[in-house]
Amino acid sequence: MSNKLNPLSVWALAAGGMVGGGIYTVLGVVIAVSAQWSWLAFAYVGILALTSTYSYVFLSNKFAESGGAFAFLEKTVDESLAGSLAWMLILGYVLTISVYAYVFGHYLSFAFHGNPLLIRLLAAGVVALLIGLNLAGVGKMTKVEITIVSANLLMLLALGVYGLGQWDTTKLVAGIEPRPIWSSLFGGAAIFMAYEGFQLLSYEYDKIRDPQKYFMPVLVSATAFVVALYVIVTLGATFLGGATSLVDFKEIALSIAAKRAFGTAGVAAITVAACFATAAAINSTLFSTAQLAKRIAHDRELPGWFRHTNGNDVPDRSILLLGSMAGVLAVIGSLSSLVEAASLVFITTFGIVNWLCFKERDSKKWIPCLGMIIAVITGLSLLLRLAISKPVPLAGLALLILLILLGRPQLLKHTES
């Protein structure tokens, strides 16, 4: 029992899984889309995050096993469909890791007045370092992650509250065109990946102390806290930095806000927080994704190649492949494209989980039903936005998903033969 995660640890890891890369990554992106309604964008998709949290916990408790969306689909619908979703989910995690690495490079480089080459080297370097730590068997450092999360949450909350004390609504549109209220729909869709992270705890279900009693209130309260924190930080940081500055420097939006408020000391504090938070998010996501790939391979929905482990009982091939893919994307990708592609994957996944909860739940069906409706509206909004503004990346993502759906059965047949 002593090795089990207690409620406080679960709460911290869930909140940290979201905030670790979330607000550092997407603040400038959402302001560029929604301007003065950015706070509403976070609140709106926060409802989808809350319903999805409820659905994940209900299904985890119902089946009483680790595995997340893959296990839910496998138990309720079809193994083949579960395998296809799992492949897309792994793609989403790879995109997410690349975003975290991209932002890590920008925040650290900004503090040292670096250039674009340094940014890319730092992004690739942090992924390589964490691949090495995971292969060495020290990838999952729960106590360290909880310490980082606690300090990170306190710093972000302090920055947001200080910014609210400088209340000035003109800063919300300073230097940019005001947006209509419905822009919050598109802004929220574009940055939904900021709420990715809580569901990683569903992969650790068997390591949680008394989950039937604690998992629901702990995970739902962690998500609710993060929704409120995002709203506070979005308003506070914009009051401090001004909309145009946060958009122009969207990769380091919080550093800009901290510099305006506290000068060099503020930049130093945010840089340390951002680097530790994004590195912890990369680490936990890479570890959990590799373990998920191993589980899926054991169920023969991924090639058996992914089942291989090294002397430290670490799925080394999964770590190397997934981490390397994320590192390459961090070097060659752009922030908005990576964020929006990851958001689309998680909107789809969370929508499916809400649908499964709706099917399996006998009461309170309105909660997953609300999640399904918001997921459909948000997903269609993001598809429309990408079709207009980024048709080539959207076509590439669509082709990749099509290859997964059509090519996966043939690949599995070939590799298992």
Automatic annotation (TrEMBL):
It holds the Pfam family AA_permease_2. It is a multi-pass membrane protein. GO terms for molecular function: transmembrane transporter activity. The chain crosses the membrane at residues 12-33, 39-59, 80-105, 117-139, 146-165, 185-203, 215-241, 261-286, 341-358, 370-388, 394-411. InterPro entries: AA/rel_permease1 (IPR002293), APC_superfamily (IPR050367). GO terms for cellular component: plasma membrane. Gene3D superfamilies: Amino acid/polyamine transporter I (1.20.1740.10). It comes from the Bacteria. It is found in: Cell membrane. Keywords: Cell membrane, Membrane, Transmembrane, Transmembrane helix. This is Amino acid/polyamine/organocation transporter, APC superfamily.
